[in-house]
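As the next step, I wrote out a protein sequence along with its fold in token form, included below for the reader:
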Amino acid sequence: MNQFQVTSDLVNMVYDCMEGDEDLMRYHQEHGTLSMLVLTQYSQPLAHEIARLISQDIEDKIVIEIGAGIGFLAIEIAKLAKQVYAIEVDPAWSWVFTRSLYAHKPPNLTWIFGKAETMLPMLKGDIAVVATHSGINELRELAYKFAPNVIMPLQEFETLRSLTANNK
């Protein structure tokens, strides 16, 4: 079984286990997260394409990705950036990204689990990336607190919008 099939199977397992779960709903209410409870992107080829499209903006920079999901985009960004900090609040995706990180995590990628806001006093970057459909306006505002430049590729590139719609 290839890595992409394993990832797809793990994502589906998370959905099956968590659908309608009271603890999941309570978690997001208690933590004030803006999750749509749907993984926006779990395609490595799509993550590679996003990184390619933003490569001039991220090359040799310190990048903070907010809403990193299962980490495919963070891994692709790390191939180009000086340092990447990937932040993900939803513990459901830990089942999947742990497998992916064991297989592909480069040394310049730091994974942070928790609310991005808690990292504001400690973390500053050159550029922030938000590739999600959850809480877009709120996350854009938050991203500017981490870095002077923000890229929201799913909103900025029409081709990516259609690709992510087909990815679900």
Remarks:
- The longest strand covers residues 83-88.
- The chain has a mean pLDDT of 82.
